[in-house]
Every structure is written in C-alpha cells, then in structure tokens.
Amino acid sequence: MAVARSKIKSMGAAQSPLLGAAMFAPAVLYILLLVGGPFLLAIFYAFSDARIGNAEMHFVGLETSAASCKAPVFALPSAIPSSSPFAPKSW
Predict the structure, then answer these.
(1) Contact present, 48 and 58 (Cβ < 8 Å)
(2) Burial 10-38 (b: 16+ CB within 10 A, else e)
(3) What 3-state class would DSSP assign to 86?
(4) Residues whose CB falls within 8 Å of the CB of residue 74, separated by 6 or more in sequence, listed in order
(5) What would the pLDDT profile of 41-89 be if each residue is shown by its tens digit?
(6) 64 CB contacts (<8 Å, ≥6 apart)?
(7) Among 84, 64, 82, residue whose Cα is nearest residue 73
(8) CB 53, CB 67: distance < 8 Å
(9) pTM of the model as a whole
C-alpha cells in the first residue's frame, strides 16, 4: 500500500515553527555565558585595580596599561632576551 507523499506529515518542527528555536536557545545561551562571562570579567579586571585577597576593586581605566607600558621590564630591548628561552628553537 503506497502512501502519497503529500499525505505524509512530519511531526515536530513542521507543526510548530518556534520549536526548533526553543530547543536551540538554551545551548546558545550556555555557550554565550561560558565564553562571554569570563571574557567580560577579564576586561573588567584589566581596567580595575583588583588584587588577590582584597575584596575592594576600583575602576582605574587605562592607568594600569599606561603604567605597565612605562615599566622597564616591558621595555623592548630588555623584553626580548627575557622571553627568548620560551621561544621555539625553529625561529
């Protein structure tokens, strides 16, 4: 007994167009929180004066970046020899 293709109806998404989006949304939300949460927290920590063991944090903006650029440890001539032991030998 052959059934005509027009008479066959699929179950699920064909009956409810929002079902696919409703089932996909929790996965997207989970991935966004898993990746986006730590990313935003890292940006917040970069622009604050957070310290280990201290509960106080103050927004300082680019002061920490400017101070680290002025530090002699990060100056270009002294930074290259200190990082060369970690560079691959093929370079």
Answers:
(1) yes
(2) eeeeeeeeeeeeeeeeeeeeeeeeeeeee
(3) helix
(4) 68
(5) 999 888 888 888 888 888 888 887 788 778 777 766 666 666 666 666 6
(6) 46, 47, 48, 49
(7) 82
(8) no
(9) 0.51
